[in-house]
Amino acid sequence: MADQTWLVRDLPTLDDVAAFLNVSPRQGPGEATVVIRPDGSHRVFYLAPGSLGTGTQQTWDSAPFSNGDDAAKFLNTPPKEGKGEMSAVLRDFGDVDLLYLHPGSEKFAEQVWDFQGFESREDVLSFINDSPRPEPGQLSVVVRADGSVGFFDQGGGGSDSRIWEFHDFPSAQDAVTFMNDRQLGPGEVSVGRDDGSVTLVSLTGRDPALP
User: Which residues are CB-contacts of 40 (< 8 A; sequence separation ≥ 6)?
Assistant: First the structure.
């Protein structure tokens, strides 16, 4: 993330978020993660300046789905979205809204988006940190009001020595400060909830199994 800084912006709708990210210098893969707020507005955390710049080879867009499985099927339809080319908003009643870059760049058939849910953060971390764990850009997490977690992941290569961790912050600005202090790069963070305080998952831990 050389010469890039994490910032935050509030916008009314997901379409507004996509339009904002498409303004030059435009955000590239992994440079945006979005969350829905209790009042129905959206908050996007983004890296600036965006790496796509004035390029128009890919465009941010949004799409609604009635469930996570339909959203995953959409992401896996060629041209498939690759690393960092999606961020999901999961509403408490089951609907899913996707923010995504198209056309997708994923060329490998074995890289498939999947949607899953667990009752607790601990269960999620146990699953995603198992080898091969998702690499940067292969994870989008949503924390529900009841504490359960839904997430999209694209498998992984298992080559990263870091592990995913949950972090909680009293405000969006505190979360942004953490992201910049840790110098998190594209796809290394997914904001999962923002109801005044912020919950995110980031690739900041070290695998305890390593020497």
Answer: none
